[in-house]
Amino acid sequence: MFGPEGPTLRELAVQALSSVEHGYDLLAPKFDHTPFRTPDGVLDSVAEALAPLGPFEDGLDLCCGTGAGTRVLTGLCRRGVTGVDFSAGMLDIARRRVRPADGPRIAWVRGDARALPFTAAFDLVVSFGAFGHFLPRELPGLFTQVRSVLRPGGRFAFPVFAPPRPAHPGFWLLLGFDTAMRVRNALWRPPFVMYYRAFRLGTVLRELERAGLTVELGVLPGFGRRADGSPRARLVVARRAGARPSEGQPAAGSVNS
User: Fold this and answer.
1) Which end of the chain is more exposed for a tag (fewer CB within 10 A), N or C?
2) Torsions phi, psi of 123, nearest 5?
3) Could you tell me what percent of the chain has a pLDDT over 70?
4) Which N-terminal stretch is annotated as signal sequence (predicted)?
Protein backbone atom coordinates (compact mmCIF):
# COMPACT_ATOMS: atom_id res chain seq x y z
CA MET A 1 0.00 0.00 0.00
CA PHE A 2 2.85 2.37 0.79
CA GLY A 3 4.92 1.41 -2.24
CA PRO A 4 5.84 3.81 -5.03
CA GLU A 5 2.52 3.41 -6.89
CA GLY A 6 0.20 3.33 -3.88
CA PRO A 7 -0.89 6.15 -1.58
CA THR A 8 1.43 7.38 1.13
CA LEU A 9 0.51 7.26 4.80
CA ARG A 10 -0.05 11.02 4.70
CA GLU A 11 -2.40 10.73 1.72
CA LEU A 12 -4.43 8.04 3.47
CA ALA A 13 -4.65 10.20 6.58
CA VAL A 14 -5.97 13.15 4.56
CA GLN A 15 -8.50 10.87 2.90
CA ALA A 16 -9.65 9.46 6.24
CA LEU A 17 -10.31 12.97 7.56
CA SER A 18 -12.42 13.86 4.52
CA SER A 19 -15.98 12.94 3.61
CA VAL A 20 -16.43 9.59 1.87
CA GLU A 21 -17.00 11.29 -1.48
CA HIS A 22 -14.06 13.68 -1.29
CA GLY A 23 -11.84 11.01 0.22
CA TYR A 24 -12.35 8.77 -2.79
CA ASP A 25 -11.86 11.68 -5.16
CA LEU A 26 -8.43 12.10 -3.57
CA LEU A 27 -7.61 8.38 -3.57
CA ALA A 28 -8.89 7.66 -7.09
CA PRO A 29 -5.58 7.98 -9.05
CA LYS A 30 -3.92 5.38 -6.78
CA PHE A 31 -6.94 3.29 -5.79
CA ASP A 32 -6.09 0.34 -8.04
CA HIS A 33 -2.74 0.05 -6.24
CA THR A 34 -4.33 -0.49 -2.81
CA PRO A 35 -5.80 -3.56 -1.08
CA PHE A 36 -9.21 -1.85 -1.26
CA ARG A 37 -9.60 -2.72 -4.93
CA THR A 38 -11.36 -6.08 -5.43
CA PRO A 39 -8.77 -8.69 -6.55
CA ASP A 40 -9.02 -10.06 -10.08
CA GLY A 41 -9.45 -13.58 -8.68
CA VAL A 42 -12.70 -12.55 -7.01
CA LEU A 43 -13.95 -10.75 -10.11
CA ASP A 44 -13.17 -13.72 -12.36
CA SER A 45 -14.80 -16.18 -9.99
CA VAL A 46 -18.02 -14.17 -9.85
CA ALA A 47 -18.08 -13.80 -13.63
CA GLU A 48 -17.67 -17.55 -14.06
CA ALA A 49 -20.53 -18.26 -11.62
CA LEU A 50 -22.88 -15.77 -13.29
CA ALA A 51 -22.23 -16.77 -16.91
CA PRO A 52 -24.61 -19.79 -16.88
CA LEU A 53 -27.44 -17.55 -15.63
CA GLY A 54 -27.31 -15.35 -18.75
CA PRO A 55 -27.29 -14.11 -21.33
CA PHE A 56 -27.97 -10.66 -19.93
CA GLU A 57 -28.83 -7.59 -21.98
CA ASP A 58 -28.07 -4.66 -19.66
CA GLY A 59 -25.95 -4.56 -16.50
CA LEU A 60 -25.29 -2.09 -13.69
CA ASP A 61 -22.14 -1.93 -11.55
CA LEU A 62 -23.33 -0.44 -8.26
CA CYS A 63 -20.69 1.78 -6.59
CA CYS A 64 -18.40 1.02 -9.51
CA GLY A 65 -15.29 2.84 -8.30
CA THR A 66 -12.59 2.66 -10.96
CA GLY A 67 -14.59 0.17 -13.01
CA ALA A 68 -13.23 -3.27 -12.15
CA GLY A 69 -16.73 -4.72 -11.83
CA THR A 70 -17.89 -2.84 -14.89
CA ARG A 71 -15.26 -4.66 -16.90
CA VAL A 72 -16.72 -7.95 -15.63
CA LEU A 73 -20.15 -6.91 -16.88
CA THR A 74 -18.84 -6.25 -20.39
CA GLY A 75 -18.25 -10.01 -20.67
CA LEU A 76 -21.71 -10.91 -19.39
CA CYS A 77 -24.01 -8.33 -21.01
CA ARG A 78 -24.79 -8.01 -24.71
CA ARG A 79 -26.30 -4.54 -25.07
CA GLY A 80 -25.22 -2.05 -22.41
CA VAL A 81 -23.25 -1.67 -19.18
CA THR A 82 -23.50 1.22 -16.72
CA GLY A 83 -21.22 2.11 -13.85
CA VAL A 84 -22.64 4.34 -11.11
CA ASP A 85 -20.63 5.97 -8.30
CA PHE A 86 -20.89 9.18 -6.33
CA SER A 87 -17.18 9.97 -6.58
CA ALA A 88 -16.38 12.02 -9.66
CA GLY A 89 -12.69 11.20 -9.23
CA MET A 90 -13.30 7.44 -9.31
CA LEU A 91 -15.53 7.77 -12.38
CA ASP A 92 -12.85 9.78 -14.15
CA ILE A 93 -10.35 6.95 -13.67
CA ALA A 94 -12.95 4.38 -14.73
CA ARG A 95 -13.57 6.21 -18.01
CA ARG A 96 -9.87 6.05 -18.81
CA ARG A 97 -9.33 2.41 -17.85
CA VAL A 98 -12.48 0.72 -19.18
CA ARG A 99 -12.61 1.57 -22.86
CA PRO A 100 -15.51 0.62 -25.16
CA ALA A 101 -14.51 -2.12 -27.59
CA ASP A 102 -16.61 -4.45 -29.71
CA GLY A 103 -18.81 -5.43 -26.77
CA PRO A 104 -21.71 -3.60 -25.12
CA ARG A 105 -21.86 0.17 -24.90
CA ILE A 106 -20.56 1.61 -21.63
CA ALA A 107 -22.03 4.55 -19.70
CA TRP A 108 -20.83 6.24 -16.52
CA VAL A 109 -23.25 7.97 -14.14
CA ARG A 110 -22.51 9.98 -11.04
CA GLY A 111 -25.16 9.11 -8.49
CA ASP A 112 -25.96 7.86 -5.00
CA ALA A 113 -26.81 4.16 -4.61
CA ARG A 114 -29.46 5.16 -2.07
CA ALA A 115 -31.32 7.18 -4.72
CA LEU A 116 -30.57 5.56 -8.07
CA PRO A 117 -31.41 7.70 -11.11
CA PHE A 118 -32.78 4.80 -13.19
CA THR A 119 -36.02 3.01 -13.94
CA ALA A 120 -36.31 -0.79 -14.21
CA ALA A 121 -33.63 -0.95 -16.90
CA PHE A 122 -31.23 -3.75 -15.91
CA ASP A 123 -31.13 -7.54 -16.07
CA LEU A 124 -28.08 -7.80 -13.82
CA VAL A 125 -26.76 -5.60 -11.01
CA VAL A 126 -23.42 -6.37 -9.35
CA SER A 127 -21.46 -4.75 -6.56
CA PHE A 128 -17.95 -5.41 -5.26
CA GLY A 129 -16.57 -4.25 -1.94
CA ALA A 130 -18.90 -1.30 -1.41
CA PHE A 131 -21.25 -2.39 1.36
CA GLY A 132 -19.02 -1.24 4.20
CA HIS A 133 -20.04 2.30 3.26
CA PHE A 134 -23.66 1.67 4.25
CA LEU A 135 -24.86 1.51 7.83
CA PRO A 136 -27.11 -1.45 8.69
CA ARG A 137 -30.15 0.83 8.91
CA GLU A 138 -29.56 1.89 5.29
CA LEU A 139 -29.76 -1.63 3.83
CA PRO A 140 -33.57 -1.75 3.46
CA GLY A 141 -33.57 1.42 1.37
CA LEU A 142 -30.52 0.33 -0.60
CA PHE A 143 -31.99 -3.04 -1.54
CA THR A 144 -35.35 -1.47 -2.39
CA GLN A 145 -33.50 0.83 -4.78
CA VAL A 146 -31.76 -2.12 -6.40
CA ARG A 147 -35.05 -3.96 -6.86
CA SER A 148 -36.56 -0.87 -8.47
CA VAL A 149 -33.91 -0.80 -11.22
CA LEU A 150 -34.14 -4.53 -12.02
CA ARG A 151 -36.38 -5.74 -14.80
CA PRO A 152 -38.66 -8.69 -13.98
CA GLY A 153 -36.43 -11.72 -13.63
CA GLY A 154 -33.34 -9.55 -13.15
CA ARG A 155 -30.63 -10.48 -10.66
CA PHE A 156 -28.55 -8.66 -8.06
CA ALA A 157 -25.27 -10.47 -7.33
CA PHE A 158 -22.32 -9.87 -5.04
CA PRO A 159 -19.62 -11.92 -3.27
CA VAL A 160 -19.45 -12.28 0.50
CA PHE A 161 -16.42 -13.57 2.41
CA ALA A 162 -16.59 -15.33 5.76
CA PRO A 163 -15.21 -13.11 8.53
CA PRO A 164 -12.02 -14.28 10.22
CA ARG A 165 -12.33 -16.03 13.56
CA PRO A 166 -10.86 -14.51 16.77
CA ALA A 167 -7.86 -16.84 16.55
CA HIS A 168 -6.89 -15.27 13.22
CA PRO A 169 -4.88 -11.99 13.19
CA GLY A 170 -7.29 -10.63 10.58
CA PHE A 171 -10.09 -10.63 13.15
CA TRP A 172 -8.22 -8.17 15.34
CA LEU A 173 -7.07 -6.11 12.38
CA LEU A 174 -10.65 -5.56 11.20
CA LEU A 175 -11.90 -5.00 14.73
CA GLY A 176 -9.20 -2.40 15.27
CA PHE A 177 -10.00 -0.68 11.98
CA ASP A 178 -13.73 -0.47 12.73
CA THR A 179 -13.05 0.77 16.26
CA ALA A 180 -10.73 3.47 14.96
CA MET A 181 -13.36 4.57 12.43
CA ARG A 182 -16.04 4.77 15.13
CA VAL A 183 -13.78 6.92 17.30
CA ARG A 184 -12.89 9.08 14.31
CA ASN A 185 -16.57 9.60 13.43
CA ALA A 186 -17.43 10.45 17.03
CA LEU A 187 -14.80 13.19 17.07
CA TRP A 188 -14.65 14.49 13.51
CA ARG A 189 -17.08 15.78 10.89
CA PRO A 190 -18.00 14.99 8.21
CA PRO A 191 -18.13 11.26 8.98
CA PHE A 192 -16.31 8.66 6.89
CA VAL A 193 -18.50 5.57 6.86
CA MET A 194 -16.44 2.44 6.24
CA TYR A 195 -16.94 -0.55 8.52
CA TYR A 196 -15.76 -4.04 7.65
CA ARG A 197 -17.70 -5.87 10.36
CA ALA A 198 -21.12 -4.21 9.99
CA PHE A 199 -22.25 -6.17 6.90
CA ARG A 200 -23.60 -9.41 8.38
CA LEU A 201 -24.80 -12.13 6.03
CA GLY A 202 -27.89 -13.15 8.02
CA THR A 203 -29.13 -9.57 8.17
CA VAL A 204 -28.37 -9.03 4.49
CA LEU A 205 -30.35 -12.08 3.40
CA ARG A 206 -33.37 -11.03 5.48
CA GLU A 207 -33.33 -7.48 4.12
CA LEU A 208 -33.05 -8.69 0.53
CA GLU A 209 -36.14 -10.82 1.01
CA ARG A 210 -38.01 -7.97 2.68
CA ALA A 211 -37.20 -5.84 -0.37
CA GLY A 212 -39.09 -8.38 -2.51
CA LEU A 213 -36.17 -10.38 -3.87
CA THR A 214 -35.78 -14.15 -3.93
CA VAL A 215 -32.33 -15.10 -2.67
CA GLU A 216 -30.01 -17.94 -3.65
CA LEU A 217 -26.78 -18.42 -1.73
CA GLY A 218 -24.04 -20.13 -3.69
CA VAL A 219 -20.38 -20.96 -3.21
CA LEU A 220 -17.32 -19.55 -4.95
CA PRO A 221 -15.25 -22.74 -4.92
CA GLY A 222 -11.84 -21.30 -5.72
CA PHE A 223 -11.39 -19.89 -2.21
CA GLY A 224 -11.61 -23.13 -0.25
CA ARG A 225 -13.27 -23.86 3.05
CA ARG A 226 -12.65 -23.08 6.69
CA ALA A 227 -11.72 -25.67 9.30
CA ASP A 228 -15.40 -26.33 10.07
CA GLY A 229 -16.13 -27.06 6.40
CA SER A 230 -17.98 -23.82 5.69
CA PRO A 231 -17.00 -21.97 2.49
CA ARG A 232 -14.69 -18.98 2.68
CA ALA A 233 -16.49 -17.21 -0.17
CA ARG A 234 -20.14 -17.19 -1.18
CA LEU A 235 -22.09 -15.60 -3.99
CA VAL A 236 -25.40 -13.97 -3.16
CA VAL A 237 -27.83 -13.87 -6.09
CA ALA A 238 -31.12 -12.07 -5.40
CA ARG A 239 -33.77 -12.27 -8.13
CA ARG A 240 -36.74 -10.05 -8.85
CA ALA A 241 -39.86 -12.09 -9.58
CA GLY A 242 -41.00 -12.58 -13.16
CA ALA A 243 -39.46 -13.73 -16.42
CA ARG A 244 -36.99 -11.62 -18.34
CA PRO A 245 -38.47 -10.36 -21.62
CA SER A 246 -35.84 -12.25 -23.63
CA GLU A 247 -36.70 -15.54 -21.95
CA GLY A 248 -39.19 -17.98 -23.29
CA GLN A 249 -38.56 -19.92 -20.09
CA PRO A 250 -36.52 -19.40 -16.90
CA ALA A 251 -32.81 -18.96 -17.51
CA ALA A 252 -30.77 -22.13 -17.65
CA GLY A 253 -28.17 -22.78 -15.01
CA SER A 254 -27.99 -22.16 -11.31
CA VAL A 255 -25.54 -20.96 -8.74
CA ASN A 256 -23.31 -23.73 -7.44
CA SER A 257 -24.12 -24.69 -3.87
Assistant:
1) C
2) -95, -20
3) 94
4) none
Please give the distance of CA 5 from its chain centroid, rounded to a whole number. Answer: 24
Query: DSSP letter at 231?
Result: B
3-class state of residue 10 by DSSP: helix
**In the chain, at which residue ranges do the beta strands (DSSP E only) sit?**
56-62, 77-85, 105-110, 122-126, 150-161, 213-219, 233-240
Beta strands in 111-182 (DSSP E): 122-126, 150-161
Enter the pTM of the model. 0.87
| Confidence band, pLDDT 50/70/90 cuts, at residue 247 | low
Count the neighbouring beta carbons within 10 Å of the beta carbon of residue 171.
14
Give the span between the Cα atoms of 75 and 77, in whole angstroms: 6
Q: Which of 134-138, 170-174, 226-230 has the lowest mean pLDDT?
A: 170-174
